[in-house]
TrEMBL record:
PANTHER family: HIGH-AFFINITY ZINC UPTAKE SYSTEM PROTEIN ZNUA-RELATED, METAL-BINDING PROTEIN HI_0362-RELATED. This is Periplasmic solute binding family protein. InterPro entries: Bact_metal-bind_prot9, Lipoprotein_PsaA-like, ZnuA-like. The lineage of its organism: Bacteria, Bacillati, Bacillota, Bacilli, Lactobacillales. Belongs to the bacterial solute-binding protein 9 family.
């Protein structure tokens, strides 16, 4: 019975997408603004910066308490997606529900940008936290600028100028990463989840507990021997710092934090989704600033 109810709900949602598609397209046509829908707010930012007053960007997830993997699309989401000229998703299974919404609307002519496929060309099974690679964000901004310019050729120069300003901010993040690499390159680091890995790779750091982090990400129980090894590495300061996803709490993670602090191993706090009252740029800057403080203390 539960399976039948779920199937009916999905069918009703998909039918609502088809019914609302024509209405959504008429709205877009009448207000002359490019309509953009994104799964998450950090992908909404570059689109909004490029478009300015010539577009309307809607992020379907804005709450830090919502896990994009587990999000259930609503009828309102279906309506917004049906009206979109451009849809931006992370891909790689991170926001597959949005991909289903787009595919269910056969009359949609929206341009879909799948960051994993179109920007990163990400192999199956690779790290899905693509927004932590600043080069991906630069490429996404350039791709969106090209798409918007084709949809509104009269505003091409405006879009290009806005894009250049935003990319300059992204380049600043890349410059800061290069500076930090000169300090941290070759050093060991411990993580609780693979959220921050692209930054750590850019710093040329060695992650000592990849299997443990993947187990936590997948909701599996880590091996006791792995946990013991990690605690020993912290106690003997075998890692430069510990990276913790602040949005995931458990007695196990709290124990690692306690062990790190007792050994004077710095703890770097990151989040998977953009914190409230932050922009993508300020969010990334604050996390990199934690690394800068550690680098300064180690000099």
């Amino acid at each position: 019975m539960k399976k039948m109810k779920t199937t009916i709900s999905i069918l009703l949602l998909f039918l609502s997408v088809i019914v609302l598609a024509a209405c959504g397209q008429q709205t877009t046509k009448s207000n002359h603004k490019i309509q953009v829908v994104t799964s998450t707010n950090f992908y909404a930012e570059p689109a909004a910066k490029i478009l300015g007053k010539y577009g309307q960007v809607t992020s379907l997830i804005n709450s830090t308490s919502v896990d994009p993997h587990d999000y259930t699309a609503t009828t309102a989401d279906a309506k917004k997606t049906a009206a979109a000229n451009v849809v931006i998703m992370n891909g790689a299974g991170y926001d597959s529900w949005l991909n289903k919404l787009v595919k269910s609307n056969q009359s949609s002519q929206a341009k879909v940008v799948n960051v994993a496929q179109d920007i990163r060309q990400l192999p199956n099974g690779e790290n899905e936290h693509l927004w932590y690679d600043f080069n991906n964000m630069v490429k996404l901004t350039n791709r969106l600028t090209s798409i918007f310019s084709k949809q509104q050729p009269a505003q091409r120069e405006v879009f290009q100028n806005n894009s250049a300003k935003y990319i300059a901010q992204l380049k600043d993040l890349q410059k800061q990463t290069i500076q930090l690499k000169s300090v941290f390159s070759g050093q060991s680091v411990m993580i609780t989840e693979p959220v921050f890995n692209y930054v750590l790779q850019a710093l040329d750091m060695k992650i000592v507990n990849q299997d443990f982090a993947q187990d936590i990400e997948d909701g599996a129980d880590p091996k006791p021997t792995e946990l013991q090894k990690m605690k020993s590495q912290l106690k003997h300061k075998k890692v430069t710092f510990l990276v913790v996803n602040r949005q995931v709490e458990s007695s196990l993670i709290n124990g690692l934090i306690k062990t790190a602090k007792a050994a004077d191993v710095p703890v770097v706090y990151v989040t998977e989704t953009m914190p409230k009252n932050q922009t993508y740029i300020t969010w990334m800057k604050e996390e990199l600033q934690q690394l800068s403080k550690i680098a300064k203390a180690n000099q």
